[in-house]
Amino acid sequence: MDLDAAVLVGSVHDLEKLRPLEEIFQTFGIRYWVEVASAHRTPERVAQLVKKAEDEGAGVLVAAAGLAAHLAGAAAARTLLPVIGLPLVAGSLGGLDALLATVQMPKGVPVATVAIDSAANAAYLAVEILALRRPSLREKLREERRRWEGGKG
């Protein structure tokens, strides 16, 4: 199976927050997998999963994490794939810590970042990136936006 997207999430407790992303991926026929890995607790696993995503032909990687949220950066440091950071609410700062940790990347190691808890936008951005190599996705995206214009989205 040729993989479209790989999704890493920092904690099993955050899997439910990925439901909108998974629904959108399923709607668009995106082939993906989701794995739990922590940049701090299991850094070797993160490295292995990034390599697995590359080996399986992924075109984009989504990394979702709360608190210090170094998962997206840890992934981006190990690949040339586009990485989308999805900061999640966890702890007392309402996700602001995760947002700042995700967007503050050094020159040359970018992470595209969506709003806190915005799994849907992470999915749509991933689909847009994948549409660069799968033109059929572009038309599906156009149809989706037409529905929104009609007040149905």
Strand order of the largest sheet: 2-1-3-4-5
Class of secondary structure makeup:
alpha/beta
Radius of gyration: 15 Å
N-end to C-end Cα span: 31 Å
Number of domains: 1
Q: Characterize the overall form.
A: globular
Number of helices: 6
What is the architecture at the second tier of CATH?
Answer: 3-Layer(aba) Sandwich
Q: How many strands in all?
A: 5
Report the mean per-residue pLDDT as an integer: 95
Strand content: 15-25%
Weakly predicted, low-confidence segments: none
Task: Write down the CATH topology.
Answer: Rossmann fold
- Secondary-structure element order, N to C: EHEHEHEHEHH
- Tell me roughly what share of residues is in helical segments: 40-55%
Largest sheet: 5 strands, parallel
CATH class: Alpha Beta
Structure, explained:
The chain has 153 residues and is an alpha/beta fold. It has a single domain (5-149), classed as Rossmann fold (3-Layer(aba) Sandwich), CATH 3.40.50. The chain contains 6 helices and 5 strands; from the N terminus they run βαβαβαβαβαα. Strands 2-1-3-4-5 form a 5-stranded parallel beta sheet, sandwiched between helices. β4, α4 (96-103) and β5 (112-113) form a beta-alpha-beta unit. α1 (19-28) runs parallel beside α5 and α5 (119-131) crosses α6. The longest helix is centred in the C-terminal third of the chain and has 15 residues, at 135-149. It starts with a strand and ends with a helix. The relative contact order is 0.17. The mean pLDDT is 95.
